[in-house]
Description:
Function: A probable RNA chaperone. Forms a complex with KhpB which binds to cellular RNA and controls its expression. Plays a role in peptidoglycan (PG) homeostasis and cell length regulation.
Number of strands: 3
Keywords: Cell shape, Cell wall biogenesis/degradation, Chaperone, Cytoplasm, RNA-binding
Protein name: RNA-binding protein KhpA
Structural class: alpha+beta
Subunit structure: Forms a complex with KhpB.
CATH superfamily: K homology (KH) domain
Main location: cytoplasm
Oligomer: single chain
Amino acid sequence: MKELVEVIAKALVKNPEQVNVNETNDNAGTVYELHVAPEDMGKIIGKQGRIAKAIRTVVKAAATRENKRVMVEIL
C-alpha cells in the first residue's frame, strides 16, 4: 500500500524526490501520511479535494481486496 501511495503521488507532483510516505498502525487500521513539497500541495489535493479523494478511493479499494482498513492523510 505504501508503494501505491508513493507512486501515485510522485506521478502528480513537480518535485517527486520530496514525496515521503510514513506508515503507522493504530486501532482503526493503518494510516499512511503523505508529505509533499509545499508548492505541490495543490496538485495533490486538487480542485475541491477531488484528487485527494481519488487517491483515498484507490488505496481503500486495494486495501479492501486484502481485507485491511487504511486511511490516507495528506500533510
